[in-house]
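R.M. (postdoc): so does anyone remember the format we settled on? I'll just put the structure tokens first.
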């Protein structure tokens, strides 16, 4: 599927313990100058995959104006990203700044206990 300038480096389906749950693991890169059309393609893909297996999505999303503690953002594109994350019931698990005082590298999951001990 075309995702605009987004880069999906890897997408794996992992069989859970005793074949109880599949985990979809995705690694993404969102360029800082991503246009709205590319973002919307990504949001559609995310909505599709978040309906199936347990999801873990990691990557550099280049949205430094998002405050994850309050779920707020200054820029329209960032607010739309937050809306997509909320619409798909995803949790963002990285709490410490990752680069130059900004929180750019993120980890999302749709199940609270799927990922532990994020450092």
């Amino acid at each position: 599927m075309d995702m605009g300038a987004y880069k999906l480096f890897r997408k794996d389906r992992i069989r859970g313990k005793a074949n109880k749950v599949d985990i979809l693991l995705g690694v993404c890169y969102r360029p800082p100058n991503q246009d709205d059309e590319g973002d919307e393609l990504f949001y559609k893909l995310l909505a599709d995959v978040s309906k199936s297996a347990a999801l873990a999505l990691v990557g550099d999303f280049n949205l430094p104006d998002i405050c994850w503690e309050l779920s707020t953002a200054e820029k329209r594109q960032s607010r739309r990203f937050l809306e997509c994350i909320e619409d798909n019931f995803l949790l963002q698990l990285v709490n410490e700044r990752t680069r130059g005082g900004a929180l750019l590298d993120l980890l999302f999951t749709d199940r609270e206990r799927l990922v532990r001990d994020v450092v």
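R.M.: ...and that's the designed sequence above, right after the tokens. Also worth knowing: The chain has a mean pLDDT of 82. The chain has two helices and five strands.
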